[in-house]
Structure to design on (401 residues):
């Protein structure tokens, strides 16, 4: 799948680049051809105004850029005079042919493709002037331009092809990483579901047999515990799907984050007390934000629950909420415990990341912090973790009102 995605990316990129180069080169060729034609036309018009002026001083000879010859035509189509010096004007048959071709066109100026000439009429009806300009240099210029554009286009396409391959790898890399993480998550989730399912099936089979009441109670308790574990994993997955589906955006309203934080602390105070942990808080009053109340509460609960699981026994967890500048607020939850490695700090918020030490116990599936990150991102904030000298700190910065 990823290989096909890269190939499509390269094909689309090359198609776009090819079209752009063709349009660019066609525009350059068109403008160049038009400019050459205009210069030739202007030169012939200047000569037609006075066809035999070039022999005199200050005659405007600087306007002549191309080989030409001029014919003065009488009222009956006879050649009265010829000049130019760039052609052999002694061939009367040739001169009559080009004159007839110019007359047949019915235009005051134009191109005689068969002869490789441009022509332009001037003068009066009694004594008309017919000027011809050679197109060989113009054609040579355009042919050279075509060759140059073809070479530049081929080189450009080759360079863009190599660049598009590099860009394809770079562009697909996040998808590749997400795909690998998802595959790893599916494997982990399958393992986590397989274990309780196996226990439930085994205990259910034993319950169908004749066994003492005490054994039946143990077996039913085990089934209940495993079922709750499975429900926790499924609920986490559903919550992650809801957050990704835009549930945060639709539930936003103006609210008092200080009051919300105080309310979120209440159910954790007895839990911390039972675990022998202290809970120290410092909440700056009156901090207001625009957000989803249930999701912000859930974020705070995730951080507090995370500290409850991994805090050093007998230590104190600190929660701080204060303003940060004029447009932001900062929520931090700090606890003492095993220091988080630099590698885990980079990956701890990835939804499919599972660190062996941090995620392999307490029925944790590595989804809580991922859910918190999605919620914070949906509020236009950012979340990060710090670990130093045995103190682990989780920080959430949100825009404030």
């Amino acid at each position: 799948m990823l290989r096909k995605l890269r190939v499509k990316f390269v094909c689309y990129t090359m198609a776009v680049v090819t079209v752009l180069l063709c349009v660019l080169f066609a525009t350059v060729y068109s403008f160049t051809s038009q400019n050459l034609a205009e210069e030739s036309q202007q030169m012939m018009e200047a000569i037609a105004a006075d066809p035999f002026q070039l022999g005199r001083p200050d005659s405007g000879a600087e306007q002549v850029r191309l080989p030409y010859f001029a014919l003065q035509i009488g009222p009956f189509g006879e050649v009265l005079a010829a000049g130019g010096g760039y052609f052999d004007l002694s061939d009367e048959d040739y001169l009559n042919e080009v004159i007839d071709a110019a007359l047949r066109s019915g235009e005051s100026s134009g191109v005689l493709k068969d002869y490789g000439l441009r022509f332009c009429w001037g003068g009066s009806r009694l004594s008309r002037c017919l000027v011809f300009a050679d197109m060989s240099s113009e054609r040579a210029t355009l042919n050279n331009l075509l060759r140059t554009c073809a070479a530049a286009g081929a080189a450009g396409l080759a360079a863009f092809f190599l660049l598009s391959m590099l860009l394809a790898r770079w562009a697909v890399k996040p998808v590749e990483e997400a795909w690998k993480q998802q595959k790893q998550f599916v494997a982990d989730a399958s393992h986590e579901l397989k274990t309780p399912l196996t226990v439930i099936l085994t205990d259910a089979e034993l319950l169908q047999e004749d066994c003492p009441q005490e054994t039946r109670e143990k077996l039913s308790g085990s089934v209940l515990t495993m079922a709750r574990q499975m429900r926790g994993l499924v609920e986490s997955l559903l919550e992650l799907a809801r957050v990704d589906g835009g549930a945060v955006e639709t539930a936003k309203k103006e609210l008092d984050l200080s009051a919300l934080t105080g309310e979120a602390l209440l159910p954790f105070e007895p839990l911390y007390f039972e675990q022998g942990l202290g809970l120290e808080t410092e909440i700056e009053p009156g901090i207001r934000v625009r957000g989803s109340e249930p999701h912000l509460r859930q974020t705070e609960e995730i951080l507090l629950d995370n500290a409850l699981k991994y805090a050093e026994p007998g230590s104190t967890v600190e929660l701080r909420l204060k303003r940060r500048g004029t447009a932001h607020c900062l929520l931090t939850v700090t606890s003492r415990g095993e220091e988080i490695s630099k590698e885990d700090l980079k990956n701890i918020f990835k939804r499919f990341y599972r660190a062996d030490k941090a995620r392999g116990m307490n029925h944790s599936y590595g989804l809580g912090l991922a859910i918190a990150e999605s919620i914070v991102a949906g509020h236009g904030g950012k979340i990060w973790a710090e670990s130093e000298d045995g103190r682990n700190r989780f920080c959430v910065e949100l825009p404030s009102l």
In short: The radius of gyration is 42 Å. The chain has two domains: 2-141, 248-399. The chain is about 55% helix and 20% strand.
